[in-house]
Design a protein that fits this description.
The chain contains 17 helices and 19 strands. By secondary structure, it is α/β, with parallel strands linked by helices. Bound molecules: nicotinamide-adenine-dinucleotide (NAD).
């Protein structure tokens, strides 16, 4: 089951996809018992191999062990437990009242396995983002081909051992972009892509040509808006945790902060104090501070740190050999700079003072819709204004990123930050087929349903369809009288 970059066209990956499709079509994956068994096995494998995964994450990303346990493995285990508790209720079909028009008969919408889901994941949370969609797929009675990021190879190799050993319904296809296109051509039933907006566009185009439906979990710039009513220290500590965990390489990390001008200086001081409290005077020595995934991303970050026209009030230092970039805070960068227009995806936090909520809405509204908007306030009016005045995958109050810890809470973007949902009930539904059923007894065969309709028949049909009283169709054929 373990696949290394498949350079040979029509190779084993196609055979794996066929085998998984045959498994789904055999009907074996439909039962609730099968789905629950796979989830239990996956949970056991994650718990058993926790150390292996934590070590791999340290190699790939310098990820601290506690962070790996919480944000990569623990959240998936908690999600599995949540799904197992609720799955019986979700897979039951929804009855649909047939009304007079459908009488006598019964209708429902069943949730059937969709088929083979291609899961393409990024490097920043390679366990969480590689395995979480597999949880939804197995719960849906579907199978999964996981294509992890080639930029986190140690974790990809660990998953390639763990997943197929846990369930016959998952394989791992290691390698680069060509594997994605090869798997799509092999005839998968759904593409679940997590990654950048630019690559999302490419894979969505390829999937579209093959009429493969997609879930796209993409990126963007998530704003945090801090008003003058909130305790600046508490807000700063939560934002610093959300931003600098995994060295800022989190899709829902607060990308930048818009803070009320009255409290902007105090808030910025509290941000710097929180960074020192969490990671010490020299974060490079902190066991709790991660590294940038590779040199290319470090160079990208150093480039967007140039020409922003703001003031670096903390950090800025780097060590390319160690892939280290210090937690960095920039005050008042130009809104037109790359720092304020591109997704940062690294440990750099711009802090911009604004006069009021309408101005904050203007700044947020000038950028594409993000995955998350964070409001830090104690004022219900501000919460309403920010919630109603923005569009985003999620809206969160006085938290930054910790929504990911809520098992079962659906996750997704809107517009350029993505389409479709993962996790919870919506995640399972997305990887299920919603199949309509309607059955009528073979007898009686009502003449009413067939021509010639006649006046009485037409009148009855109008009543059944709740159409208003009979209009005059002048010039129209009158039918049987
Ligand atoms: P990426 O888009 O470069 O790569 C993601 C995956 O796509 C990888 O497996 C890669 O091999 C594959 N890929 C790359 N180029 C491809 C191509 N031309 N054709 C087919 N497949 C291709 O993303 P990344 O650098 O790994 O991750 C960072 C991005 O992911 C950020 O933008 C971040 O916001 C986003 N992200 C989003 C979420 C979310 O849940 N919405 C979560 C994590 C990361």
């Amino acid at each position: 089951m373990l696949r290394v970059q498949s350079d040979v066209p029509g190779g084993e990956l196609a055979a794996d996809v066929s085998r998984l499709r045959a498994l789904v079509r055999s009907g074996a994956t439909s039962s609730l018992a099968w789905r629950l068994d796979q989830l239990v096995a996956l949970r056991s494998a994650l718990v058993r191999d926790e150390d292996v995964l934590v070590r791999a994450l340290a190699v790939d990303l310098g990820k601290p062990a506690a962070e790996a346990m919480i944000t990569e493995i623990g959240v998936v285990v908690a999600e599995i437990d949540y799904v197992r508790r609720h799955l019986a209720g979700w897979v039951r079909g929804d009855k649909v009242r047939v009304g007079l028009a459908g009488w006598p008969g019964r209708a429902s919408v069943e949730r059937c396995p969709l088929g083979v889901v291609l899961v393409v994941s990024p490097w920043n949370y390679p366990v969480y983002l590689g395995v979480m969609p597999v949880v939804s797929a197995l719960a849906a009675g579907s199978c999964a081909v996981v294509k992890p990021s080639e930029l986190a190879p140690a974790t990809a190799a660990a998953l390639a051992r763990l997943l197929p050993a846990a369930t016959p319904a998952a394989v791992v296809a290691e390698g680069g972009p060509s594997v994605v296109h090869e798997a799509l051509s092999a005839g998968v039933d759904h593409l679940f892509f997590t990654g950048s907006t630019a690559v999302g566009r490419i894979v969505a185009e390829s999937a579209g040509r093959l009429l493969v439906p997609v879930t796209l979990e993409l990126g963007g710039k998530c704003p945090a808006v801090v008003d003058a009513t909130v305790d600046p220290r508490a807000a700063a500590r939560r934002i610093v945790w959300g931003k600098f965990a995994n060295a800022g390489q989190t899709c829902v990390a607060p990308d930048y902060v818009l803070v009320h001008q009255e409290v902007a200086d105090r808030f910025a001081d509290e941000v710097c104090a929180a960074v020192r409290a969490f990671y010490g005077a020299d974060p490079r020595r902190s066991p709790d501070y991660g590294r940038i995934v590779d040199k290319r991303h470090l160079d990208r970050l150093l480039q967007i740190l140039e020409g922003h026209a703001g003031r670096v009030v903390l950090g800025g230092g780097c060590d390319p050999d160690d892939r280290y970039l210090a937690p960095t805070v920039v005050r008042e960068p130009a809104l037109s700079s790359r720092l304020m227009r591109e997704e940062i995806f690294g440990p750099v936090l711009p802090v911009v003072a604004v006069a009021d909520v309408p101005r904050a809405l203007e700044v947020v509204g000038a950028l594409p819709d993000p995955l998350a908007v964070y409001a830090f306030t104690r004022d219900a009016g501000t919460i309403r204004a920010l919630r109603d005045g923005t569009r985003s995958g999620g809206f969160f109050v006085n938290v930054a990123k910790s929504q990911l810890g809520i098992a079962g809470l659906a996750f997704g973007g809107i517009g350029q930050s993505g389409t479709g949902s993962s996790r919870g009930r919506l995640g399972v539904e997305a990887l299920s087929q919603h199949r309509s059923l309607y059955a009528r007894p073979a007898w009686p065969d009502l003449a009413l349903h067939h021509p010639p309709y006649g006046n009485l028949g037409t009148w009855l049909l109008r009543r059944m369809l709740h159409m208003p009283g009979r209009p005059r169709h002048e010039g129209a054929p009158t039918g049987r009288s």
